[in-house]
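Per reviewer request, we include the raw input and output of the structure prediction for the construct analysed in the revised manuscript.
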Amino acid sequence: MRKTFQRRDLEVILDLDPEDKTPSSQYAKVSSLLQSLCDILDRRVNTDLPYLQWVRGVKYPNLDALLRRLRSPGGSQGKFELVSMDRGGTCWFAVLPGEDTDETQKRLAKFNSFVDGRKLSGASLDELARTSSSIAIPSKHSTFDAQGFDGPFRRLAVAACRAIFFNFSNCNHQPAHEVLLQLPRWDKIASDDTSNASLSLELFLTCCPVPCMWQEAQVRVTDADFVHFRRDELLCRQPRLCDAINAAQKIGVGLEFYVHGGAQSNDGLKIQVRNQKEYGIIKKYHNKSPAKTLRKLMDDGAFKWCWQTSHFFRNTKPFGIDERKSLAFKLVFGLLISLGSEHIIKTWDSEKIYFLASSNGNGELEELRDHPYVSCGVMDEVTRDQLALPKSDLLLDGYPPPSPVFTILAKILLEISLGDRLDNVIIDTTGTDQSGWKTLRNLVKAAVAEVQKEGDRRPLPFLAAAESCLEFHYSYQAEIVRLWNRPGNQHINEFEIAKRLIYEEIICKIDDGLSRTLPAAFSISVGDARASIAHQATNRQTAQAQPHDVISLFDTLEDFTQDSREAKLARHFFVRLEDFRQSCGGYMIVTPPKRTRIAVLDTGINKAHGGISGALWLHRIRDEWCHSWVGDPKDVHDEDGHGTHCAHLLHKVAPEADIYVAKVFSHNQVKLYQAENIAKAINYAVKVWDVDIISMSFGLRHPPSQEDSDQWDGILQDIQQAIREAAPRIMFAAASNCGKNNRRAFPSTRREVICIHASDGNGNEGGINPTNKDGDDNFMTLGIAVELVDGGKCFYKSGTSFATPIAAGIAANILELAARSNELTVQAKKGLKESEGMREMFRMMSEQDQLAPYRYIAPWNYWPQNWTTD
């Protein structure tokens, strides 16, 4: 509950609009769930707690009294228990003996299920964005943090703008001078070097009285009254900036001048210019000038992704992922400079962001994309109101409106991400009309769905940053309220809060590598995940080097990329499978006598895995349903990862089924004597757990040594006997991954066991299956490029090992549908729970391919769309 309510996109994943007060069915449903939770909490508040004060007329008096105490000064300090079995001590909530805890769990599970059903592919947008980038973070970024984010560069920009615009105020030419400021590189902002030589800004200034001519310039800051040049080095003691620009333009050199670092003193208005004729600097960009705007580049298709358009129709080379990240970062940093300043850097206006090109506008633009310039100006009252941060004491009651400037910045980030201008989205800069903000929020959701459909996750970091811009007013208010309620925190620095939020909530979304410098880092980094996978690979290689291995877990070592055709087909398969499950909703009202039970015989499970921990939380896996025949009977921890992936796939395909975990070996390659565990586990699953389905993603082959033949024969007989006695349970086993180089592996060769081969998401044979067997069904289902998760990192692998739990999950869904249906006879339901009955059901769900004689199992082949109406 805490994790759910802390999500700033809560109203988005619940499809609610906090600005729309019109009641709807969705609003009523969520309201009912929340009221149910409040009712649970109110009844379980420990009313014996001291200092509780009740108020008449409130709907939840006990919960209200507890909240009043916690909000009071020091009310949440000291040691406490959250939940206890009695009302003594300092517990906040008490669960007393005899209370209906089952009903409580049912309500909580209902709420959690509702929220989980609206998550984005099981992960928030932040999590998806974190897994989308494979670009290594350069070492120069390692020192980049929120302090450097507001370092010397920002102070120089503020001092320079103040001096420049004061000097231009004395110029009578119209139109007024324009000032373009080059946005800095990441390493320049993060640099700790504060020497005068390093503190410089690169500018382009217009000349007067010819405003169409641009002069390249460089400004440096000094804390002294003035730089100690010789008399002949100075243009004059009190120069006019206009004269200095015209002189440099006439000579054809770059302009260099100095400003004082005392931002609030009169000295801060002075400038000092070197004699350009004798000591002028060489132009850095020579014949190039600000010739193309960001808006023009968008029109030319520079931000379209490869899957959006053909290269024949592009007018310019598209921006790469690094170029987009660099640009997005600079735009956000420009906004930060404007906050709390008397001058504006309009990084939220695509027509005010320039890129250098040749004078004719058709030059080497690609070489200068890392040097965007942005228009600067004196802050006017309208923009000051748009940028103003709400006062902290005004945020304690009510909800602030969306920030117009952050909304416009979100629009630009969306345009960078989507590749198209959003001219039809109008942002009301006064903040009164929020329709544009709502449209952008919906566009983020639609864009994420489109990106996932295309399989190219590169736009996700920009979508996550845009979402954070749209939610900035919520984040800002939440942080203000949190600090306000902290004891002794009477003074709140609004700018420091905004700066930190911009860094953590926006910048770190653009490049997740920067988030590694935050105090509260992610629980597992990409490096940790890679180390975990490498460790598993080492374990497998070590095991493969040992002799007399007879058991193989059939997953291939070949990985697919997330944007490969096979991975896209696999994701689409799961979408269709979920659509089928949702179509069964009419039957799900009927509660079955018991849930379908599936035993997975493998290497155990990792309870810290996201998919497994979710199943444990929903009680689809329980500790008492786990048993190990390797070492400690209670220790089912997966040291390999194979069993975890199989159990997760089972839960993903059949989330209503109960999963029983049998750890029968520890690694991919297994010694002969460990094969004895298989028969023991089958007997245990049948006689103790009374399961309906047994899934076995492994295969056995005769040991190479003749000395082991007698032991092999004994183990084989025990397993065959266990399989015969398991009838009428439905049993599945993986075929093998050796293609035509090997036949099926045992126990998939047994008639009592349904052998499963691997296909891609369209039902095409995957190329890893053994030769089809005459007289058998040769069933296959998805097993190519299946998405797996390890340590928060997604990757794609193939194998009949993964097709097997998917087939077992499909069978579980059929059993559950049959159990909930009142239209099937008892005999029909009983027949489906037997191996031959499920085979017949699978035949009706599949057709035999004449070219590749395998039967592709897919529920939609038998139950078409809207089948419940028939």
